[in-house]
Specification:
Elements lengths: L1 E12 L2 E12 L3 E5 L6 H8 L7 E6 L2 E2 L4 H5 L2 E4 L11 H9 L7 H10 L13 H13 L5 E5 L7 H16 L3 E6 L2 H7 L2 E6 L2 E7 H7 L1 E8 L13 E7 L2 E7 L2 H9 L3 E7 L3 H11 L2
Parallel strand pairs: 3-8, 3-9, 6-7, 7-8
Antiparallel strand pairs: 1-2, 1-4, 4-5, 9-10, 11-13, 11-14, 12-13
C-alpha cells in the first residue's frame, strides 16, 4: 500500500517554473528520500502535498485520499518540519508546544518532554532567546509530538550540529520502526544515503531519476583532489567513471563514479603530497547525469 501517490503534479507561478509532471509513490513504512539542489522544486512539491498551495494540474493522494479535498483530515496524521521555522518570539518553548498539541485530541505532555530530552531542548526558554539550531529543534519536537503516521521533512538538519544530527536520525529510525512513513527532503546526498531506502532526484522542477539507495551506493560517487610532487599529464585520468576533470600544475580534481579501489590503484603509482576524498555535492552528481544523458 502507498502512503503517498503523486501523479503528474504540476505547479506554475505565472510564467515562473515550479514543478512539472512530478510523479512518484512512497510505500507505507518506507523512508523515502527526495533530493535535489536548492530551488529544484522540493519544497513546492511538499507544500502541495500539504495543500498549503494548490496544484496547477495533476493529483496527489495521502492515505489514499486526495490531498486537496481531504486536506484538513489528512493533516491530523502528518508531522511536518519546514526548511525554515518561524515562531512567536515572546512565547516560551513549552507554551508553544502545548499550543501546537492543542490541535490534536490527545495528551502530548509526556511525549513533548521525551522529545525535548532527546534533542537537548530547554523548554523554559523564550523562542527569541534560541539560536537557529535550537529553533530547528523546536520544529522537530513540534512535528513529532502527536506521533504522526506520516512525517514530512524539508531540509531538516540545517542548523543542527553533527552530534545532534545523529540523534535526530536515530529518533527518525525509531519512529519508522513504530510504523511511521517518512519523506526526507534534502540537498545533502550523504544524509539521504544514510536514512533512505529509495530516492527521487529532482532538478529544475522535474524528476530525473527514481532509484534504490543500494543502486546509488553502487555508483559510489566521490570527489577527489590531489596535490602531486610532479606535474601530471592531462590524459592520465581520462578513464571510465572520471568526470569534471581539472588539471592545473601539480593539482588534480575530478568526480569519480564506480569501484573506488580501481581509482585508488591508479593513484597509488603517483607521488602524492596531499589527497582529499569527499562526498560530492548534488550539483556535481547532476552534472554527471546530464553529461552522460542518464
Amino acid at each position: 500500500m502507498n502512503t503517498i501517490e503523486i501523479n503528474n503534479l504540476t505547479k506554475t507561478y505565472g510564467k515562473a517554473r515550479g514543478i512539472t509532471n512530478v510523479s512518484f509513490n512512497v510505500e507505507e513504512g518506507e523512508i523515502f528520500g527526495f533530493i535535489g539542489p536548492n530551488g529544484a522544486g522540493k519544497s513546492t512539491t511538499i507544500r502541495t502535498l500539504l495543500s498549503l498551495i494548490y496544484p496547477t494540474s495533476g493529483s496527489a493522494k495521502i492515505f489514499g485520499k486526495d490531498c486537496i479535498e481531504f486536506g484538513p483530515e489528512i493533516k491530523k496524521e502528518i508531522g511536518y518540519l519546514p526548511s525554515e521555522v518561524f515562531y512567536y518570539d515572546n512565547m516560551k518553548v513549552m507554551d508553544l508546544l502545548n499550543y501546537s498539541a492543542s490541535f490534536y485530541k490527545k495528551d502530548c505532555k509526556k511525549r513533548i518532554k521525551e522529545l525535548a530530552e532527546i534533542m537537548n531542548l530547554d523548554l523554559n526558554k523564550k523562542i527569541d532567546d534560541l539560536s537557529y539550531g535550537n529553533k530547528k529543534k523546536v520544529g522537530i519536537v513540534q512535528g513529532l509530538l502527536h506521533e504522526p503516521k506520516l512525517i514530512m521533512l524539508d531540509e531538516p538538519t540545517s542548523g543542527l550540529d553533527p552530534l545532534m544530527q545523529q540523534k535526530f536520525f536515530d529518533l527518525l529510525k525509531e519512529e519508522n520502526k513504530k510504523g511511521a512513513t517518512i519523506l526526507f527532503s534534502s540537498h545533502v546526498l550523504s544524509e539521504v544515503q544514510k536514512m533512505c531506502e529509495r530516492v527521487a532526484i529532482i532538478k529544475e522542477g522535474k524528476i530525473i531519476k527514481i532509484e534504490r539507495i543500494s543502486d546509488l551506493k553502487e555508483n559510489n560517487y566521490k570527489n577527489f583532489e590531489l596535490e602531486t610532487l610532479s606535474k601530471i599529464d592531462q590524459n592520465y585520468f581520462n578513464i571510465n567513471g572520471v568526470t569534471n576533470l581539472l588539471v592545473k600544475d601539480n593539482s588534480v580534481s575530478f568526480l569519480f563514479k564506480g569501484n573506488i579501489n580501481l581509482i585508488l590503484q591508479k593513484i597509488s603509482v603517483i607521488e602524492i603530497a596531499n589527497l582529499w576524498i569527499e562526498e560530492p555535492n548534488l550539483e556535481d552528481v547532476f552534472m554527471h547525469y546530464y553529461e552522460k544523458g542518464e
